[in-house]
Structures are given as C-alpha cells and as structure tokens.
Amino acid sequence: MSANLLGTDVEGILGRVLEADPECLYVVNPSAAVLEQLVYATVGSAGPEIRVLGEDETLKRVMEDFLVASKAADLVEADRVAIRSVPENGRTAMFLTDDQVTALVQAGDQVGGLSTTDREFTSSVLEAVETEWEAAEEFRLRTPALSRITETLELDLEPCVREDFESLLGALETAKGNGTGLDEVTISLLVAAKNNVLLYDISKWGEDVGIASKATFSRTKTKLEDKGLIDTEKVPIDVGRPRLRLKLQDERLLDADPAEMAAIASEVLAN
C-alpha cells in the first residue's frame, strides 16, 4: 500500500483532498493546531459537509479562543461543519473520505499529509470511523456565530460600533483573555467606550446574543476601570437610577488604531 505526500500545511492538504469532490469529509482526532487551521481554511469556502470527530479536551481548548470559536459557530450554523467529541480515541489524526485516507503528520509548524486510496484499507477505516461518529456526542459551542454578533451590533447599537469591533478583532491573533489576548467581553467594552455607548446597552446586547451575562460585563467593566483603561459618567433617565456611559480613560487609546489599541490594552491588563 503506497502513500503520497499531499502538502505540508492544512489548507494545502485540504485543497488536495477536496479536489476529488467528496460528499463528506471526516476530520478525525485533529490536534489543536490542525483544528484551528481547518476552521480558518474552511471559512468562506464551498465544499462538502465536514465532520470533525475530536477529543473533548482538545476541542474545548481550541474553542476557548473567541476568534476560532465564533468562526466555527458560523460554519456549524451554515451546515458546513458538524462537530462531535469523544473522551479519547487514540487514532492517528486524519482526513477521511469514501475513497481516500490522509494521515496528518505534524513536525513543528508543518503538517504533512500522507495519503492512500487503497480501497480495502479505506473502506475498513471509513466503516470504523462512521461507527465512532454515530456513537459520539455532539460538541456544543458556547460561543455565538460571528456573523450574528456583528449583525446584532449594528442593529442594536450603531454601524460604527460594528466596524470598530471587527477592526479590533482583525488586529488580534488570539482572543482568550487570561494573558493570551483580549477576551470577547473586554473587546466589546473597549469598543463601546470608544463610541460612548451606555453600559446597559452593551451588556444587554452581550447577554441577548449569548456572549456573556450582564454580571460578567459589569465585573469586566470594573476591572477595566481599575486598570485605568475606561471610565464612566452618569446619565440621568426619567425613572430609576442613572445609567453609566462608557468612555476611554487612557489617553493613548483615544487616537490609537486597532492594532495599537489591542497592544496597549493587552499590556495594561497583563500588569
């Protein structure tokens, strides 16, 4: 049984596998790096349904990154990707179609794809993976789809808020928080402060769309205030307690472009 090298990166290997126009593609036991690259390579492309069968801990770790999880949620909502999890399967990472098995071999930053079309072998592997797929549990993404997030930002708030949100996301390599990038709540509050949005409005939007609770927005707002990144001013209303309007406090943020804003906020929060 011979094998052919189909490339040395996920996007290239995926493109070669999809040249045969399969009805379905299984992605079995991908590493965190492979899964992340797969999501980015699949966004905006056409093709078959992709069924990801991954280990639960790996899926959870990758989906901690808002940038990846929100794009994956878009793919799931569009029926481009389905994700199921298993506790641990020990299988070789692979792309699998009805007539081809491509083992994924990772070496540093490179991922090689070794492929075979041997019918007997492919049929045997496919039968085993299909059985595992049927028995596996659906992996539920807790992050809303990025398209729904940006659409509702524009509808519920203002187009400029959506534009700034997208620009700030585009300047980030990761969005996990905890010292590895700004998380989605922090990003939302910084953008809201840049546009003088009420805390009530941004937190209600965030809770409605499924990003986080109002309480989480309030706690994060307090942290950003304590760090000197944002400030608030009271806005009287006809009935009830005054509401708080968010403002940028750190003068460096006032005229910063998205990349500079991300860098300044990350540095302040890390200290």
Could you write a compact summary of the structure shown?
Helix content is 47%, strand content 20%.
CATH architecture label of the largest domain: 2-Layer Sandwich
Element pattern in H and E: EHEHEHHEEEEHEHHHHHEEH
Question: What's the domain count?
Answer: 2
Q: Tally the helices: what do you get?
A: 11
Instruction: Note the beta-strand portion.
Output: 15-25%
**Global mean pLDDT:** 90
Task: State Rg.
Answer: 22 Å
Please tally the β strands and state the result: 10
Question: Which structural class best describes the helix and strand composition?
Answer: alpha+beta
The CATH homologous superfamily of the largest domain: Endonuclease Chain A
Query: Uncertain runs with pLDDT below 50, 5 residues or more?
Result: none
Main beta sheet: 8 strands, mixed
Q: What is the CATH top level name of the largest domain?
A: Alpha Beta
In the sheet with the most strands, the strands line up as 1-7-6-5-2-3-4-8
- Assign a percent range to the helix content: 40-55%
CATH topology annotation of the largest domain: Endonuclease, Chain A
Large-scale geometry: elongated
Note the gap between the termini: 56 Å
